[in-house]
Amino acid sequence: MRQLSLVISLLVFASSFGTIEGAGSTQDEVVVSVDGTNLRFSPSTVNIVEGDTVRFFWSGELLAHNAVSDDGLFDSGEPSRNVDYSFTFELGTNGSHTYVCEPHEEVGMVGTINVEPAPPDPSPEPETGQEGENSTKSGETWIPFFGLELVVAVMLFAVIYHFGRTQGLAETRLILPGDDEEVER
Questions:
Q1: Which helix (H) or strand (E) is 152 found in, with range?
Q2: Domain range spanning residue 76?
Q3: Cα separation of 11 and 6, whole Å?
Q4: Which residue from 107, 154, 158, 175 could staple onto 7, CB 3.0 to 4.6 Å apart?
Q5: What Å distances lie between residue 23 and 28, 62, 136, 139, 145, CA to CA?
Q6: Direct distance between the N- and C-terminal alpha carbons of the chain, in angstroms, rounded to an integer
Q7: Is the dihedral of CA 129, 134, 137, 138 positive or negative?
Q8: pLDDT above 50: residue 10
Q9: Which residues are bridge partners to 53 per DSSP?
Q10: In a domain? residue 9
Q11: 47 and 85 inside one domain
């Protein structure tokens, strides 16, 4: 059992080194909740970048609330004591967006989301060689999901090894070249 837990630990460690294209996404989520004692959004001002998400979340509030933008960009729906609504600010939504809690707008329950333009894509255009084919400076190629394949192979080996040990079908040991013992057939 100790060996199995060691194998699982090694697999988790090994999988942390894998690289998956697109995993470096810069999308963030900002949570806006309700300060029910002061009838305010918390935080009342949010600064994000295009592509980020704002999540309006509150649960078990004494009074019902909602979040509705003045420009009609988003609307969390009817006022409720429990809200879990997310809105992602896509490209082209940069600017300042004011929103209100409709039932409590008169007492100043308003908020602002400032959306900055998304930074330009840092990936450069592929260079073309003289023959018009794509080339890289180092000539190396990237094999997608190579780390995942390695993890699967190690897991398969561990399962087969563990099955052989627990079922007692055969003695399981590693025979190295140069061992003086002869293997019985």
A1: helix 146-167
A2: 29-116
A3: 9
A4: 158
A5: 13, 40, 22, 24, 12
A6: 29
A7: negative
A8: yes
A9: 29, 88
A10: yes
A11: yes
Give 35-41 contacts, CB < 8 A, sequence gap 24+: 36/61, 36/62, 36/63, 39/63, 39/101, 39/104, 39/107, 39/108, 39/109, 40/108, 40/109, 41/67, 41/99, 41/101, 41/109, 41/110, 41/111
Closest CA to 144 of 14, 18, 10: 18
Question: What's the number of domains the chain is made of?
Answer: 2
Both tokens of residue 123? 């990936």
Residue 2 has pLDDT above 60, yes or no: no
Same domain? 42 vs 106 = yes
Q: Please give the model's pTM, rounded to 2 decimal places.
A: 0.53
CA torsion angle 137 140 141 147 (round to 10)? -130
Q: Which two tokens stand for residue 50?
A: 């295009």
Contact 81/61 with Cβ under 8 angstroms? Answer: yes
One-letter amino acid of 79? P
For position 158, what pLDDT does the model report? Answer: 82
Going by C-alpha positions, the residue among 172, 180, 175 that lies closest to residue 3 is: 172
Higher pLDDT, 135 or 153: 153
Look at the block and give the residue holding tokens 């989301």.
113
Distance CA 136, CA 133 (A): 10
